[in-house]
């Protein structure tokens, strides 16, 4: 009987300790900030693959320059093709051609932006991380997995996951469903284009612009702008 009571007491103590540890972990988890990242031009230098695929999809009907395509990155693909003159139905066909080519070259023709790995490793120590991109989530995950970074993210929201892409707030709000409830002043969206900044504003979270991506001269659009993604993460860690 005494042995039974002792065993019961130890089991109860172990359960109590586990419960306390879980409670402490949950509390620590809820204290973390949330950082959402754009991909193209923020974490990934993907201009070469996007440009090649865009040209392949346009065929001989239109020959854009690299600079023209860089200026369109951040828009949904269909809007990119409509911007250069294709109508709605034709743009949908071009998107299919684009994706058929891009899926074959996306890993080979993509590099990481400077200090992206270091920034993500640092960010993962004090924040929950997610990706919000107009890129297809399938390709996004494949590329992040290739670079060994997918494991750092709790969620990747891509074009197939939402109805209204950035600058609408929908992608950000959908991503936030995967995290603990967090005050919006502790949530950040880091991106390189006006669409990232506007999406953050529409979702009423902090917008952060990195200057070395595709967007230019956006200092007036946000109070937080940095030369590299590592500089941005370092700032968020300290505040």
UniProtKB/TrEMBL annotation:
Signal sequence bounds: none
Enzyme class name: hydrolase
One Pfam family matching this protein: HAD_2
Catalytic reaction list: 2-phosphoglycolate + H2O = glycolate + phosphate
InterPro entries given in the database record: HAD-like_hydrolase_sf, HAD-like_sf, HAD-SF_hydro_IA, HAD_2, HAD_sf, PGP-like_dom2
UniProt keyword terms in alphabetical order: Hydrolase
GO biological process entries: DNA repair
EC number: 3.1.3.18
Any one GO molecular-function label of the UniProt entry: phosphoglycolate phosphatase activity
Pathway: Organic acid metabolism; glycolate biosynthesis; glycolate from 2-phosphoglycolate: step 1/1
A GO-annotated cellular component: cytosol
Keyword Metal-binding: no
Family: Belongs to the HAD-like hydrolase superfamily. CbbY/CbbZ/Gph/YieH family.
Protein name stated in the entry: phosphoglycolate phosphatase
Organism: Helicobacter fennelliae MRY12-0050
């Amino acid at each position: 009987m005494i042995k039974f009571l002792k065993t019961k007491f130890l089991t109860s103590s172990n359960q109590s300790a586990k419960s306390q540890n879980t409670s402490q972990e949950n509390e620590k988890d809820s204290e973390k900030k949330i950082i959402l990242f754009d991909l193209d031009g923020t974490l990934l230098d993907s201009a070469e693959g996007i440009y090649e695929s865009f040209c392949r999809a346009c065929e001989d009907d239109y020959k854009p320059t690299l600079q023209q395509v860089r200026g369109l990155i951040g828009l949904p693909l269909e809007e990119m093709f409509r911007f250069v003159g294709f109508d709605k139905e034709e743009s949908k066909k071009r998107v299919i051609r684009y994706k058929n080519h891009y899926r074959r070259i996306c890993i080979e023709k993509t590099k990481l932006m400077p200090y992206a790995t270091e920034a993500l490793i640092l960010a993962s120590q004090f924040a929950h991380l997610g990706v919000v991109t107009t890129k297809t989530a399938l390709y996004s995950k494949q590329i992040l997995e290739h670079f060994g970074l997918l494991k750092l993210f709790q969620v990747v929201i891509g074009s197939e996951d939402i109805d209204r892409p950035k600058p609408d707030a929908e992608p950000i709000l959908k991503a936030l469903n995967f995290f603990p409830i967090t005050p919006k002043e502790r949530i950040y969206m880091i991106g390189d284009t006006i669409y990232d900044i506007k999406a953050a504003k529409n979702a009423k979270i902090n917008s952060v612009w990195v200057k070395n991506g595709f967007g230019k001269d956006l200092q007036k659009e946000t109070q937080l702008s940095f030369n590299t993604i590592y500089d941005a993460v370092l700032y968020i860690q300290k505040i």
